[in-house]
Amino acid sequence: MEIFNHNSNINFLGMRKFSVGIALLLILASIGLIVGKGLNYGLDFTGGVALVVDYQQPVVTTDVQAALDKAGIEHSLVASLGGTREVSIRFQPTAAMKDEAGKVNLDKVAAVTTAALQATRADAVVKSRNYVSSQVGDELRSDGIVAAIVVVLGIGVYLGIRFEWRFAVAAILTEFHDALITVGVFALVQREFDLTVLASVLAVIGYSINDKVVVFDRVRELFRSSRKAEPEEILNRSINNTLSRTIITALFTAITMAALYFIGGPVVHGFAITMLIGILVGTLSSIFVASPILLWLGVSKQDLMPKTKENPELARRP
Amino acid sequence: MSDFPRWKYALVAIVLVLGIVYALPNAFLPVPAVQITANRNGTVDQALEQKVSDALKQQNIATTGVEIKGDHLLASFVNADVQRAGADVIKAALGDDFTVAFNLKSTVPGWLTAIGAKPMPLGLDLQGGVHFLMQVDQNDVIDKQETRYADDIRSLLREKNIRYESVTRNAVRGQGVSIVLKSAEDRTAATNAIAAEYPDLTLQDGLATGDRFVLNAVVRPDKLRELSLNTIRQNLGTLRNRINALGVSEPIIQQQGDSRIVVELAGVQDTAEAKKLIGATATLEYRAGYGTPQQAIDAVRSGIIPPDARLYKNREGQPYLLSKNVIVTGDQLADASSSFDQTSGTPAVSVTLNAAGAKKMLDFTTGNVGKPMGVVYVERVVDTKIVDGKEVRTPKITEEVINYATIQGVFGKNFQTTGLRSPKEASELALLLKGGSLAAPVDIIEEQVIGASLGQENIQKGFRAVMIGLALVLLAAAIYYKLFGLVADIALFFNLVILVAVMSAVGVTLTMPGVAGIVLTLGMAIDANVLICERIREELRNGSTPHAAIRAGYDKAWATILDANVTHLIAALALTTMGSGPIKGFGVTLLIGILTSMFTSVTVTHAITALIHGHRKLKTLSV
Question: Does ipTM exceed 0.90?
Fold first, then answer.
C-alpha cells in the first residue's frame, strides 16, 4: 500500500519565502502570546495546593468554583478531569489551612475544602491532595530551561561533527521554532503548563530532531552521489524522497499519542496533547523550514565531500 | 544466499529469551499482605506463625498463607478489604511487641527470583501513598557554626590572655565572626592563636581606627559545604530509623540535590503519623555512670533503683544505671566524627564540645578518671490526639544508651570514644551523636497524598493505553507494509518485552510518565522500520533484485537510523537530569526505549527477514 506518490516532485524550496515567512510570523505570535498572555503555570511551578475531587453525580466546574468562592477560597482554578464526575482544584492555601507555625497542613486543606464543597453538594469526596511550595517551582523552571539548552547544544555539537556546521545551525533554529510554537499554543489556549508538559516539550525537540536528521541524511547522500549538484534541486529531491517516511512516522507516532490521550487518563493528557502539537509542528518544519535555512546558509557539495587528506608532497610541487 | 551471519541469529535468540524471562515477573501480580516484624521483646518464629494463623481463624478471616520470610512474617490475603480486617485482628492479638504493617507479597515463582528476575517497582502514582519533599534548613547550620566559633574564640582569647574589646557574629549570615582588639600586636597574637586552633577559619585583618583593631574570621566554604552535607546525611539516618519504626515496607528516603530529602511511603494514607515522626526532635545527654553493671541487672530484677540514679537500656535491651545529673547536653556538642585511635588503631569517634560544654566536661573528668560515663539519646515525639473535640498534645519520649565507656583521662573540649568494634559502629555512633545535636530543622516543602484507588485506576488506564497504542501501530504497519510490516510488528512487540525486561532488571520505578514514555517509544520505534521499508521500496523501484534491495535497504537506512537515534538519545539524556521523580522516570524510559528499539527494529527484523527470504529465489517482495 502506498499513500504517497513515490515520484512526487513538489517544489518545496520554491515556496521558501512564503513558508519561512509563515514560520517567522508563528514564532513572533508565539513570543507575543507567551510574553503578553503568559502561560497558565501548573502547581509544579506556582506552588500551592491541588486536590482531586470526585462526585457521585455529574458536576459543572463553575458550580464547584462558586462553592469555593462562597467559602472564601479565592482565585481557585477548577478543571474537569476527563468526564463529568472528577475535577481538579488548584488554589493558594488560606489561613485556615495552616497550622500554628504557619505551615500548610494538607489534612486541614482537605477538611476545609470538603466542608466548602459539601455545603452545596454532599457527594463530593477528596480523592488526592498535593502541596508544593513556590520555591520548588522556581528551581524547576530554571532546571527546565537549562535542560532545554543542553539538549539544543548537544544536538548542535553532534550534527556539527557528523554533518557540518550549517546543518547544526539549521537544526537548532528549527528546534527553537518547534519548541516556541508548541509552548505558544499552550499560551494561546491557556492550558495548564506543568512539569509533564515541560518534559514533553523536550520530548518534542527529540522527536523533531529525529525528523530533521532523516532529511539531512538524504541531503548529504544526494550531494555526495550527484555529479551536478544544484543545492536547491538536491534539497527539493531530499524532501520529496523522504516525504513518505516523514508523514508515515508522524502518523504512527500520532496514533499512539492519540491512544494515550483518550485512554491514559487525565495524568497524561498534557503529555499526549503536547506531543500531538509537537508532531504536527515538527513534521511541517522538517518539510518547509529546515531546508530553506540550509539553502540560505549556503550548503554546497564541497562542504559535504568526505575529507581527503591533503598530501603536503603534492602541495609543494609546482 | 543469506548475508546474515550465524552469530547474529544466536544473539537475537539469546536476547529474546532473556527479554521474555526478565519481563515475566511483571505478569505475576503481588497479593495484599500484612507484614509483622518483631520489636525489642518479640521474636519471629514458628510459635508466632501459629498464633497469627489461630487468631485469623478465630475471627473467620481467610488468609492465603502465613509464612516466615527472613526476619519478618507475611500473612497474605485475597483482597485489600480482607487485608485491612486481617491487620486489625493481628494487631489486637500481638500487642506492642510487634510492628504490623501493610505490604504486598510477591507471587513470582522461586526460579525467577533465583536468577534475579524481579518485577518493576511501582511509583506512588500507581499504588497510592504519601510523598514528602523536605528542605533542610542550611541557614540554621551556618548560624550554629558561627555562634559556636564566636564562643570558642572568646574563651580562647581569654585563655591566651589576649585583651579584646568584643567578639561578635557579623550581622550578615555567612560573614563570620568579627573580633575587635585593642592593639596591632594583640591582633597579630590573636591571628596566630586562632589560626593554630581553628584551621577551618579564614582570618583577615579589618579596619584599624584608633584603638580598635578589627579581625574577621570566616568559616571556610568547603567546611560549610561539608557541614551541610553532613547535616543531610544525619537527617537521612535519623529519618530512616524513625520510619523503620513506623513499619512501612520499603520506604524511599533519598537525598535530592544539596539540601533536600525525598520520603515516599507506599500504602500510607495518613500523613499525620508520618509527619509526627519526621518532625521529632532528638537530643543527647552525657551522664556519669552509676555503680557496676551487676547493680544495673539487679535493679532490673528487683525493680529498686538507687535514688541518685536512673535506669536506661541500650538498643539490645542491656540495662545501665546512670547518674541523675547531666554533664553535657547535645546542644553543647559541636562536632562528632568517626576516626581511628592514634595509639591502638581501633575505630573511634572524635567529639568536639563548645566552650561551655568543654568547661563542664573538664570539671567532671578532673575528679572521675577511671569511672564510667554514658551517652543517652533522647527522642521526643509529640502525639496529637483529639479528645472531646480538643487537641491534646502528649509528648512521647524514648531514651536509649548509645555509648557507655570508661573515662581514661582528664579532657575538655576534644575527646575520643574508643573501643568500638568496627568502623561501621564508629560511624553509626558519630551519626547518632550528631543527630542528637546539630541536626538542622527540616521543613516539608512538598507533600502529596495519592489515594489507593487512584493508583489502581492509573495502572488500568496505563496498561490499556500501552496495549491499544501497540495494537493500533501493529495494525497500521501490517496494512501499510504487508509482510515487512508484520516482521516489524514482531520486532515492535519484542521491543516492548525487552524494554520491560531492562526496566525491571535495572529496577526503574514505573510511574505514569514512564508509561507515557513507553507508549511514545512504541510509536517512534517503528520509525526505523519505516526508514528501512521505504529504502527497500526505493531500491526495488530503481531496479534492484529483491535480495539486493533488502541488503541495500538495511545498509543505507542504518546510517540514518544511527544519526536520528543518537540525537534523540541526547534529548532523552537531558530529561533524566531533570529533578528526580516523574520526569526522570519518563527520561529513563525513553532512554532505554531508544536503545532497545535500535536493536529490535534493525537487528531483529533483519534476522527474521533473512530467515524468510534467505534461501529462496525471489521475484517480488511484499513490502
Answer: no
